[in-house]
Amino acid sequence: MVSITSIERSEVGSPAGRVTGPAELTIVLPTYNECKNVPIVVELLDKALAGVAWEVIVVDDNSPDGTSQVTADIAQMDPRVRIIQRIGRRGLSGACIEGMLASSSNYVAVMDADLQHDESLLPKMLEALRSQDYDICVASRHVEGGDVGTGLSSIRAWGSNLANTLARDFLKVELSDPMSGFFMLRRDRFVELAPRLSSQGFKIMLDIVASGKGALRVKELPFVFRERQHGESKLDTLVTMDYLGLLVSKIFNDTISVRFLMYSMVGGTGVVVHLIALKILLATFGLQFGLAQLIATFVAMTSNFFLNNRLTYRDRRLRGLVWVRGLLTFYVICSFGILANVGVAELIYTSKPIWWFAGAAGALMGAVWNYVVSNALTWRKG
Ligand code: GDD
Ligand code: MN
Questions:
Q1: What's the domain range around 352?
Q2: What is the spatial distance between Cα 78 and Cα 14, in angstroms, rounded to a whole number?
Q3: Nearest protein CA to atom 34 of ligand 1, as residue
Q4: How many domains are there within the chain?
Q5: Ligand 1 pocket test, candidate residues 111, 200, 202, most atoms within 8 A of CB
């Protein structure tokens, strides 16, 4: 790395147009493999925000392309730039929350670091918030003047429309673009809501507005979604599951965590896998029922483990030898889960012989046990 002497430092001290002193506005840039984009974004912010006391906090999940180091190098030249490098964690919402919590400005904004968000909107957003008439300002592709441009593929555009409709119908969130990841809000409002936000998933703005339960005064401003220049999108089809999880969790008023919901959805697929495996083992291989049931149970447990590792715990995904150890602990935990399931079901059935009630209570008991214990052991943090 190039070292910067104190003389060079004082030279970059306070160029014309740069406002010194405490920042009024913090821009949080979540990054994963954006080493080419970060220097460009900082330059664009400098131009767009002339006359504003701003700072930028890059929250990088230890990108293999060295985004953290690239940012640290810029920060050596420009004190308005800061870096939070997170190790062993992944996730867009969590990164945004940490970045905003690291700010002490009056206003915080979140913007993609890949140049898809139009930074020239920031001064207008700031103006709207300074007027004290609004708590949050959202950049929307769907109000008049806004456009998804060519930045979204048609299948993504379709998915995005569906997600918008769901948010409107189920969360009663009146936003023209609830999927937008570009917004600015008062930091005091954010801090109030922060304990209720889910760090999983990527719908941080929707989460903030839904958690505000209608109390936030929202201003929408149009913008055109630009095409990505360098690097690639990190949001794959699995994020749709995250989104559905957030939706259901909010419908249940946060009483059920997004993770537990995903875990349960995976459990549901496990039942289907189990039945298909059982049918094949009986019909095609002609195994005797007991043995077929045992093998089908292992097939379903393995499939659940695989899906949970890819989906529910994608931010703590196990790989290599740890993956094997995880699978074995998962087998053991689920075996105890079956005991808990049958035990509870029998207990209830003897005092109240209603088959479906006892059966469902047993299954719920098993699911909760599996979730709590595998959360603590198989996918334990850190
Ligand atoms: N720290 C961190 N950790 N940053 C991440 C992660 C992560 O796990 N995943 C993505 N990012 C960063 C990217 O580096 C980028 O700066 C920003 O988050 C957006 O990620 P993209 O991968 O470019 O997302 P996209 O373009 O597919 O989706 C954007 O548009 C959607 C609307 O269609 C995002 O703005 C979404 O929030 C938005 O819903
Ligand atoms: Mn993008």
A1: 258-378
A2: 9
A3: 181
A4: 2
A5: 202
Nearest residue by C-alpha to atom 14 in ligand 1: 31
Across the chain, which has 382 residues, the per-10-residue mean pLDDT values are 41 62 94 95 95 96 96 96 93 95 97 94 96 94 67 68 77 81 96 90 88 90 85 70 76 79 90 92 91 91 94 88 94 92 89 87 89 92 68
Domain assignment of residue 236, yes or no: no
Task: Confirm or reject: Cβ of 92 under 6 Å from ligand 1.
Answer: yes
22 and 160 housed in the same domain: yes
Residue 31, strand partner residues? 60
Looking up tokens 């922060």, which residue turns up?
Answer: 194
Ligand 1 centre to CA of 170 (Å) is 24
Helix (H, G, I), strand (E, B), or coil: what is residue 23? Answer: coil
Residue nearest atom 19 of ligand 1, based on CA coordinates: 112
**Could you tell me which residues come within 8 angstroms of residue 108 by beta carbon, excluding any fewer than 6 positions away?**
25, 26, 27, 28, 99, 100, 184, 185, 187, 190
Distance from C-alpha of 38 to C-alpha of 48, rounded to nearest angstrom = 15
CB atoms within 10 A of CB 321: 8
If asked whether residues 92 and 38 sit together in one domain, one would say yes
Q: Which residue's alpha carbon is nearest to atom 39 within ligand 1? A: 179
Minimum-distance ligand to the CA of 235?
Answer: 1
- Residue 82: strand pairing partners: 57
CA of 173 to the centre of ligand 2 (A): 24
Q: How many helices (H) does the chain have, and how many strands (E)? A: 13, 7
Q: Ligand 2 (ion): which residues have CB within 5 A?
A: 112, 114, 116
Residue 33 shares a structural domain with residue 178: yes
Q: How far apart are CA 200 and CA 197, in angstroms?
A: 9
Tell whether 129 and 224 lie within a shared domain.
yes
The answer to whether residue 245 is domain-embedded is no
Structural domain contains residue 367: yes
In a domain, 343, yes or no: yes
Looking at residue 224, the DSSP 8-state letter turns out to be B
What does the block give as tokens for 105? 């400005």
